[in-house]
Q: What sequence folds into this?
């Protein structure tokens, strides 16, 4: 026993004095690489990373206009270590700090207290980092963000690991006698991460607000995308094996029934072979593709083509791509190495000739996520000719496909808008919207809200429903997302599939068409300022606790502020959207501080409180903030060049201004200054509201004939 | 266009000629390290691995008695590569080869066509390698196994990746026109693996049969465990906060109701504090632990103690363990570094004094799996004093706890038997049975079957049920597992919880008590020969297709042979168990080739065919193979030293022999030869069966007074 004790003492003496912090070094080489954005290099980072691969250029000019931000963290608390071929990172956390982000999660928006392994793959029902866009960027309620620029499967312990060298230590609790207070995950005071690479570039993104941190992160990667105007209309993806005549008949049916449609999406059947792909038109189903596309163009309807990356041996470009692809096949198709210019050159050349030149507007790029649980993808062991490893390529694949297709259109000074199943950091400026095969409506909305933290876009596409109520609710929600779409690939559903709710469905699609100027301005703010179009309430300064609690209402409101709000969100600056899920007879809606008004009636709804509503089927509840302007055009079923009058709906009583954006809607000329911001200004003289519409001298609008203000709220 | 083509050609010229096999080298340094077992070193393996950590010694003598085995694979097809701090491996596969193993999976036994990341963690409902015992060993229907001796999170693509340099290439199929034949996962002709380490030791394990490969693998790690006889009785784990008086009352209730019980398990409430643990008796609930344990011992009932690894600040050994633990806490408790002798020394010393010395028989070691999805465990970033990394430690933790506790008992020449929630390769000789919080009955049985491929044991413990039928079915199944247990930690359930089925439940527990000699012999075969006690049908040579198909029955049988059989299994050589799940009114039972007989009646049941049965609630269907002997003793409610008469039930008509095993049932003296194999031999003279019972001259049995043969099957 004595001998034993002695041997322990010897061992203790042999251990380094600080056995706990061994190897962890403070990260000291921070550089302000962009206004309010600092980066540091730890170890020897990979030669390829998100920002290099995307090639997106920081919007320095826009970043310069933002409020000043100091380095937001205690530098002495940011630690790193490389050992064993891996890089370990530690960032500090305050006890009252909330964390958001890490990409497209479906179950919760608050990520603190959870562990993630960021791995692109089809979402399988668990928020563990396995998803279509596991972006390694998180933002804090304290108004900063952290971004790990590494295309690897990164492990993130978000406030879940408790280090013995931490200053704040949770207390041990006896579960036997104090089960009530025992917690599964004692709160840690840090975010620990592991990057399986010899080194890494990390970014700390300043605020001062959480929205500023998100905006800075988006601007770092080139700002958000600005879709062409037609992209904000209604999309109909027809069943996979439809022929060109069946598609034409479907379009005729939209006209006959007076339903809007702007884009027709063709699913795999347009190709001569698919899974793997030839990218060539099938001559039986589409004997005259150019004529078909042109006929739709004449009706102001664009055509979008489905594809995936895996190249069929029957494809005309297969031979050229053989030396430019990975050493594993998927469904017997090649996996092109998209990091190589030669690869994208071969493909772009073919796509230009056979798709773009006949008028194709864009793509839906499927299956770049993979589903390792189902057992298919190229494995991490895959060699690519560029030397990029299988795991790096997996994390980059969807983004690289976005990049080369965007470039192809950009070279024609033509904007595109499309869909992609995998994305990641660095892709904010690429005009693609994420989707997947999962289909929980509430979870789809959580994903929509989460997209706002991570520089990605998401569509809760409608595919099918078991009843009319669900159909309406899904259609209503998707019309307040970046891409309003019915995807009938396999369901064969039509917007009018449920007879009893045709009016409700048509109404919300038409409302989206009327809101086009509002949506477009919202996207312009994404492109120019990095402010995401869809926004979690947690990005709003108004969504904060009340210091003074005067009544039950106040405490209820404060309780909601700390909850994970997964069923309401903002679109743009002014519109609060409350999607309703089938079966909900009533809903508690939390309204941030400030007066809010019903969009439809203009009536006062509440202020910093939780209201209970009983939604009717015909409307998705929408609220406008005090002073909010919602510009609306008359209903049109397609997006055209026709100039239209604008109704400027004004809500509430606050002086305000709204900078309505306009440009040609389809080219990149706006990047050369060819755009206009029309100031919609409201002032007050006594109790009287004075509205003015100011087009800067010498500028013009592309889309509007006239402006008419409409006060939606009765005078006090 | 021309220019563009030229640049591709230049690029092609610059690529290495064999761009696909770049870096992959044939593994050439194979050494036959044990009879029929070859190992090779690739790169620079970790300093700690499964076999080193477990310290288990190969059973060379037993391996020498096995049939000769040649190296079972084409060596030129085994490739490896180390790059980027990782090791990549490739093993060949034949098109008609089935794969099994990779540890404790719950949804399927056939692993080919799936991808796994072997990561110890609470099973979450998906067979993706995340489980309590993700053993990196697979066996093939071709009669060999592959074992990766690396305590890392290993990625396994089991016949799912298709390499372009493979000889067999799946055809591209057009899903548009040939959906019926299109498959999600085209069959690959290899197993590819990635080990996140600079190198690795790999083993190829010969057959010639699949069962031989499993046995060799088990013998490599010291053979299977031989539990003490009492361990094979019935276990009752009482509610967590029971006092010693409540436990005593429960034992009295077992007696009064005439239900067997051999072991009482105490859950966290026996400790003064738990979650984290003090390992000290709670003085309010257990004021006189020694007296309590001794009183139960007097009734031939053992006591097993729950614990987990995380040490409470209130524990007497906390201070000593501070320098011997990782730099992260769990539930504010220390995570001891069990790779250090000093650590296990401190703990063993305390356990001996406070547990073993007063008669505690063993442990249930909980929570060493972790649940990263819930957000708790020490993260991979954790530093341990020994230099073992967090991920290595995670893969080893449960095994290391088994090792030190086994050693503690072995030092007293005392066998233990207990439960553990995490295990891995190298632990076959440790007398621990896996369990978890998951509770699907069918999936529990799949896990039981899977345990047979991987040198692990599993109990489908009964905890609670929503109805009497489920209760009976669970009790019946658990009585044919390595550990027959009711776990009432939180449910408070009793064996007699469902009044209407008390007889059925008591019957099956008593049947298990009667079968003790059979179970014990089965475990002896595990210990001496490496043959697992529970066995998948796929381990039997009789479970193979019929070459000649004469009728519908034959084709149905052949169809079942290729199916994933997850609802029947063998216990030992002779007994086919068909656990029934609640709600099943009928069941198709596949009987391997050879005659099979009903255990209860001795009637002929079938031969190489699928029979349909309508199980009654009172019995779990059991079948005995032709010539099978089932030794049975009279019903006793405890396992004691009392010598008992044995009934030798004989089924069918085939000449056979069965080597009944016996020893003192509690010490390791059997390792020094103090055991007996009693030959139960049946020969045939004309149509007449002749039975003989041969005890080798000069030897004795410890447990039996007399033997009486009973022919269960009527003469033909």
A:
């Amino acid at each position: 026993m004595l001998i034993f004790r002695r041997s322990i003492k010897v061992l203790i003496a042999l251990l380094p004095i600080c056995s706990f912090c061994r190897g962890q070094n403070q990260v000291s080489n921070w550089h302000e690489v962009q206004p309010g954005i600092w980066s540091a290099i730890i170890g020897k980072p990979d030669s390829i990373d998100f920002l290099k691969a995307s090639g997106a250029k920081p919007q320095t000019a826009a970043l310069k206009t933002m409020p000043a931000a100091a380095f937001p963290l205690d530098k002495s608390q940011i630690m790193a270590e490389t050992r064993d071929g891996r890089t370990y990172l530690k960032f500090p956390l305050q006890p009252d700090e909330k964390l958001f982000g890490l990409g497209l999660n479906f179950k919760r928006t608050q990520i603190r207290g959870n562990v993630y392994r960021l791995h692109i793959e089809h979402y399988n029902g668990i928020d563990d980092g396995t998803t279509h866009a596991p972006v390694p960027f998180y933002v804090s309620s304290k108004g900063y963000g952290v971004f790990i620029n590494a295309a690897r499967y990164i492990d993130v312990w978000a406030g879940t690991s408790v280090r013995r060298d931490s200053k704040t230590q949770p207390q041990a609790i006896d579960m036997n006698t104090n089960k009530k207070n025992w917690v599964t995950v004692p709160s840690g005071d840090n975010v620990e991460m592991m990057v399986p690479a010899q080194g890494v570039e990390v970014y700390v993104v300043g605020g001062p607000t959480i929205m500023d941190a998100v905006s800075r992160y988006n601007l770092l990667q080139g700002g958000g995308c600005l879709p062409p105007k037609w992209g904000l209309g209604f999309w109909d993806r027809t069943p996979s094996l439809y022929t060109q005549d069946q598609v034409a008949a479907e379009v005729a049916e939209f006209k006959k029934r007076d339903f809007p449609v702007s884009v027709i999406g063709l699913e795999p059947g347009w190709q001569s072979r698919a899974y793997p792909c030839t990218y060539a038109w099938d001559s039986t189903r589409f004997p005259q593709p150019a004529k078909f596309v042109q006929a739709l163009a004449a009706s102001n309807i664009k055509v979008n083509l489905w594809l995936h990356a895996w190249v069929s041996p029957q494809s005309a470009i297969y031979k050229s791509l053989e030396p430019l692809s990975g050493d594993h096949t998927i469904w017997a198709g090649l996996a092109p190495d998209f990091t190589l210019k030669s690869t994208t050159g071969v493909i772009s050349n073919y796509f230009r000739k056979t798709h773009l030149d006949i008028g194709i507007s864009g793509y839906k790029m499927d299956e770049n996520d993979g589903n390792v649980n189902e057992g298919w993808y190229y494995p991490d062991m895959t060699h690519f000719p560029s030397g990029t490893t299988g795991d790096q390529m997996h994390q980059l694949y969807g983004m690289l496909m976005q990049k080369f297709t965007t470039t192809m259109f950009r070279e024609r000074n033509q904007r595109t808008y499309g869909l992609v199943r995998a994305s990641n950091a660095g892709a904010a400026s690429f005009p693609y919207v994420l989707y997947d095969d999962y289909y929980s409506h509430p979870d789809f909305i959580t994903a929509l809200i989460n997209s706002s933290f991570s520089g990605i876009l998401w569509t809760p596409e409608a595919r099918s429903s078991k009843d009319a109520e669900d159909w309406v609710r899904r259609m209503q929600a998707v019309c307040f997302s970046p891409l309003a779409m019915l995807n009938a690939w396999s369901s064969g559903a039509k917007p009018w599939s449920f007879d009893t709710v045709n009016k409700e469905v048509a109404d919300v699609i038409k409302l989206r068409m009327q809101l086009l100027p509002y949506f477009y301005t919202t996207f312009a703010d994404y492109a120019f300022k990095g402010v995401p179009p869809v926004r979690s309430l947690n990005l709003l300064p108004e969504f904060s606790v009340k210091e003074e609690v005067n009544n039950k209402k106040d405490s209820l409101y404060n309780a909601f502020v700390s909850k994970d709000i997964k069923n309401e969100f903002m679109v743009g600056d002014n519109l609060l959207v409350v999607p309703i899920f089938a079966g909900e007879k009533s809903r508690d809606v939390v309204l941030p501080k400030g007066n809010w008004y019903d969009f439809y009636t203009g009536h006062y709804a509440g202020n910093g409180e939780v209201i209970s509503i009983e939604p009717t089927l015909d409307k998705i509840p929408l609220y406008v903030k005090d002073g909010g302007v919602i510009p609306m055009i008359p209903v049109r079923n397609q997006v055209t060049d026709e100039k239209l009058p604008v109704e400027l709906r004004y809500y509430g009583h606050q002086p305000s201004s709204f900078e309505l954006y306009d440009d040609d809607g389809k080219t990149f000329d706006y990047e050369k200054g060819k755009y206009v911001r029309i100031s919609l200004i409201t002032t007050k003289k006594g109790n009287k509201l004075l509205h003015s519409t100011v087009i800067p001298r010498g500028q013009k609008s592309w889309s509007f004939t006239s402006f008419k203000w409409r006060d939606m709220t009765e005078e006090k």
